Each structure stands twice: as C-alpha cells, then as structure tokens.
Structures
1.
Amino acid sequence: MKSTLINAGKKALATACAGILALSLASCSNGDVSNAGDSRKIVGYDEINKEYRESIGKLSWPQDYTPPESMPSDSGTSFQQGWGDTQASNLFQCAWEKEWLNTYSSQPERSEEALKELEKVPEMGFMSPDRADDATRRFFKDNIDKAKLGDPSGIQQDVTANCPAS
C-alpha cells in the first residue's frame, strides 16, 4: 500500500513537472515572433527609446519637473512596442501625483492643475483594458476620488510604491 502511494506521488510530481515544462516552452519566443492576439511587435532599444521620447514630447509636465530625455540604455534587450509610451506615461502619472502631494494643502491652483492632469491617466494607453487590469484602474480612480476630497493617502501610497525617488 505504501509503495503504491509513493509511486502515485512520483507520477503526479512527474506529470506536474512535465506540464510546467510544456507551459514554459510554449511561452518562450524570439524577437521575430509576435503574440497572435497582440499586434504590437518586439523591437530593440533604439526604437523603444524613440517611442519614449515622442511620448514625453506629447505630454504636459509640472512646472518644476523635467523628465529624463531618454530611457536608461539597455542594449541587447527586446521590448514590446508600447513599452516606451508606458514608461513615459508612468513618469507623467508620478510627476503629477508628486505635484499634487506637494501642493494640495498650500497651493490650490497648482493642486487643481495636478488633478486635471491626473484625470487624463485613465484614457492613456497604459491604462487601457489590454494593458492594465480592472483592479489597477479602479485603484487609480479611488485614489483620485480621495484626493478630490483632500485625502492624500491613496496618492501617497502609489507614489511610495511605484514612483522613482526624486
């Protein structure tokens, strides 16, 4: 009886390992193959940095903030199209969240401008349903709703967890 249970356990473990291996191999791809359900290509650093710089140029920024001109150099790495825009959009969100935190209690005009800019975030590509889940979008909306009531806790939590130190 004991050896039957041990053999059954070994078979279950071997099956699980084979399944994990199959999933791992199925998820591997090279830079020439794109996901059939996603039309965004895999590109190199130069192209993704160009995308980032174009996105930076289209966004408005707080008066005391200048975003980095380029993404950190990462030669030899492949990126999915949209990553440069996502990085620029994350910087945009962080810059305006920090602006709001720095002004909400002392400079009403600047804090109001920050909230108006942050209200654009849900319409940005990086917050679209194919790039952000419902919980992320809901979390962001809840944080903005709190901020409109003068509660900095949600925005502070997001800045602490997700924004680069400046």
2.
Amino acid sequence: MRQLTDERQCRIPNEHCATAGQYALVGTYSFLGRLIRITLSLVVLLSELYHRLFYIVPLMVTPFTLKWVEDAFQNRETYRFTLKAGEAIPPNRLRENLH
C-alpha cells in the first residue's frame, strides 16, 4: 500500500488528494477564525502565506459552518432552563450526587 505523503501522489491519476496537513490547516484555521473573529482577513492571510488558491473555498466554508453550528447550539432559553432546574436540588444533595 502506497503512502500519501505528498499532494501530488494520489490513487486516482491526475486528481488532487487532500493530505492530513491540509485537514489540519483547515481545522486550525476554523478554530482560530472563530476565536479571534476575523474570518475574511485570515483567509487572505493564509492563502497568500501558502500561495495556493484552492485553499480559499475550504477556508471560507469551514468557519462559517462552524458559526452556524455554534449559533444553533447557543440557545439561551435552554441555558436558563438548566440553571433553574439546578436551583431545585439542595446543595447538600448536590454534593452527594457528584461523588
């Protein structure tokens, strides 16, 4: 079995294969883009840094998808409901349940 160490080596001739380094780049960028909230500036910076234009699409899609998922799971009403339910348990019984 042949190792895919370079993006030019692919099982399908004349096709581009994604390597583990490219997945790591997109994942790291998406985390960093959501952390410091400058998505578009990071896309320009990283595409110029790597001199690869085919990185632009995954670098744009990933943080925006992450933002949509983040917004979908940050329902404040559910968070408030959880806090109210936690107040119903007396503190001494709460300590017993944690151990």
